[in-house]
Amino acid sequence: EAGVAQSPRYKIIEKRQSVAFWCNPISGHATLYWYQQILGQGPKLLIQFQNNGVVDDSQLPKDRFSAERLKGVDSTLKIQPAKLEDSAVYLCASSLRGQGASQQYFGPGTRLTVT
Amino acid sequence: KNQVEQSPQSLIILEGKNCTLQCNYTVSPFSNLRWYKQDTGRGPVSLTIMTFSENTKSNGRYTATLDADTKQSSLHITASQLSDSASYICVVSGSTNAGKSTFGDGTTLTVKP
Question: What is the pLDDT of residues A24-71, one digit of tens each?
Fold first, then answer.
């Protein structure tokens, strides 16, 4: 079974530039999550999709972050414009069902550095 | 506010030794608790999951315990190996609010030869 795929693995941009991350979840998983993980901290949920609908985006900085999951499969997360404090690893995860009900499978993450 | 506190923040042990990591939580009502292992540069991988009625779960050299009354869990690693060097994250899910999960900040374990 193929795992969660993410690209790119690394990205370096200057502040005020824009960046986009891509995620392809495990086939058949209805729920997709985007997390932000700052060095030394646990992952923080940014947004959760159930198929192509948003379930939770309460911690997504909507003035600069956006995400979509067209056709209920792969997803993109965009930051525009980026700030220095956005430097982090962005993890994508998927699960058969939502949140604690089933195991989340994580991708390798995208390490973003904003200079 | 739901919180998950892990201790210690970091730990260094010699190869072959045992260690125990702690997780205290305030998530209520409780649904389940998972321990994840996160290798450097990779995403977290689930080690164990425990529900309210379970107080011990093993996965090879990893044994997790849960005391739902005191809201505490521990992860015990036996006969540590160099490959155990990683961050271990405790995740607690509630039974309301769509089963929202709360992540701890993890314990960074370094196993030295």
Answer: 999 999 999 999 999 999 999 999 999 889 999 999 999 999 999 988
Distances (CA, A) of A53 to A17, A78, B54: 28, 17, 34
Which residues lie below 8 Å from residue B50, measured CB to CB, with a gap of 6+?
Answer: B32, B33, B34, B57, B64, B66, B73
Chain-chain contact of A100 with B100 (C-beta, under 8 angstroms): yes
A91 in reach of chain B (CB within 8 A): yes
DSSP state of A28: T
Which A positions 11-70 lie with beta carbon below 8 A of chain B?
A: 40-45, 55-56
Q: pLDDT tens for residues B37-68? A: 999 999 999 999 998 888 999 999 999 999 99
Going by their DSSP bridges, the two strands A44-50 and A53-56 should be labelled as antiparallel
pLDDT in tens, B92-111: 988 776 668 899 999 999 99
**What is the rounded CA–CA span in Å between residue B97 and residue B51?**
17
Query: How distant, in Å, are the alpha carbons of A58, A88, A98 from that of A38?
Result: 18, 5, 24
CA-based angle B36:A28:B100, to the nearest 5? 45
B-chain residues near A103 (CB < 8 A) = 34, 46, 49
> Are residues A106 and B43, on separate chains, in Cβ contact within 8 Å?
yes
A74 exposure class (CB count in 10 Å sphere: 0-12, 13-18, 19+): middle
Inter-chain touch A100–B93, beta carbons under 8 Å: yes
